[in-house]
Amino acid sequence: MTEQEISEHIQRVQLHGYSVLPNLLSGEECAEAERQLERLMHEEADLPGSPYGSHGTQIYNLFNKARIFERVYQLPPLLRVIRHFLGEDAVLSSVQAHIVFPGAREQGLHADGSITGPNRPLAAADGGRRITSHALGFNVVFCISDYTKENGATRVVPGSHLYPLREPIRDTPLARAIEAPRGSVLIFNICAWHGASEHRGDAPRYAVMTPWRRRWLRGEADLGRIVKPEVLERAGPEGRVIFGIEAREPYTDRWMWDWSGGRPKAEWAQLDRGENG
Ligand SMILES: O=C(O)CCC(=O)C(=O)O
Q1: Largest CA distance in the chain
Q2: In which domain, by residue range, is 144 found?
C-alpha cells in the first residue's frame, strides 16, 4: 500500500468513521481461514454454553487456535492506520469470528465498547453525551467471505462516530452495507453505529473481528493471560504491547513490578501468579 493510500484511509476514518483496506489477506489465506473456522465451528458447537445458534455463531481467541489467525496483528499498513489514531502502544482487545448463517435477520445498529469502553451507560453528569472527540478504539473486520448486500455484510452509518448521543437512531436509512471482496479489512471507530445486514444468501458469511483499544482502556478480554506462550513468542518484541502485557496493572508494590514483563521483578518471583509472560 502506498503512502498516499494510507493517508486516504486515515482521512476516511477521521471523517466518515470507517474505511475499507483491500487485499490485506490473499485468496489462499482466506481459504485457509475459512477451513479453520469450519473446523472450529464444528469442534465448538457442542461445548456447554456455546454461542452456536440457528442464525450464526462466534468463536473467540482465534490466535491460539490456528496459525492463520496470527496474521491479523502482523499487517504493517493496517497497524499504521490503527496506531495513527490509538497510539503506538495500542492493544488488541479480542480476535473472534462472527459467522452469519443464511436466513439470519438484520442485527440492530449499535456502537461497540459497551462492555469495557466508552459506550457503557453514562454517568449522570455526562448529560447523555458520550466521548467522541478522540478515537478510543476500533473494530477491524477481516472479510473472510466476499461481503455483499445479500450475505449479511456489516452496515455502517457514515459519520455516526461523531454523533454525541449514546443511543443510535435504529431505523436510519443512512446505514450502508459495506460490500468488499474477501481479503479486505473494514476498520471503523467503535463509536460508529453498525450491525450485520440480513443474510439472504445461501452460504455462511465468515468474518474475523479484531477490536483494538487505547492502551489505557480495558480490553474485552485479558489477552495477555489467554495467549499461548508460543503464539506470544512468534509475535516478536511487539507481542507484549499488542497483547496488553505491558499495560497490565501491578498487583504488587510499584517498585516490585517489571513493567515490560507484566509481572513481579525476578527478585519478587515468589509473588508471580503464573500467567503468560
Ligand atoms: O457481524 C457483523 O457484521 C457485525 C458484528 C458487530 O456488530 C460487532 O461485532 O459488534
Answers
A1: 61
A2: 3-215
Give per-residue pLDDT as tens, 191-222: 999 999 999 999 999 999 999 999 999 888 99
The CA 195 to ligand 1 mean position distance, Å, reads: 5
Ligand 1 close to Cβ of residue 194 (< 6 A): yes
- Name every residue whose Cβ is closer than 8 Å to that of residue 93 and which is 6 or more positions away in sequence: 116, 137, 211, 212, 213, 219, 220, 221, 223
φ, ψ of residue 28 in degrees (nearest 5): -65, -40
Cα–Cα nearest to 21, from 138, 167, 180: 180
Q: What is the DSSP string of 167-203?
A: S--TT-TT-EE--B-TT-EEEEETTS-EEEPPB-SSS
Domain-located, residue 143: yes
In a domain, 114, yes or no: yes
Q: What number does the ligand 1 atom closest to the CA of 110 have?
A: 7
- Looking at the structure of the chain, the number of domains it has is 1
Ligand 1 close to Cβ of residue 240 (< 6 A) = no
Looking up residue 186, the CATH number of its domain turns out to be 2.60.120.620
> Rounded to the nearest whole angstrom, what is the distance from the C-alpha of residue 193 to the centroid of ligand 1?
10
pTM of the model: 0.94
Query: Is residue 205 one of the residues assigned to a domain?
Result: yes
> Is the CB of 220 inside a 6 Å radius of any atom of ligand 1?
no
List, for residues 224-274, the tens digit of each pLDDT value.
Answer: 999 999 999 999 999 999 999 999 999 999 999 999 889 999 999 999 987
Q: Flag whether 202 is in a domain.
A: yes
Pick the residue whose CA is nearest to atom 7 on ligand 1.
195
Beta bridge partners, 27, equal: none
Q: Is the CB of 148 under 6 A from ligand 1?
A: no
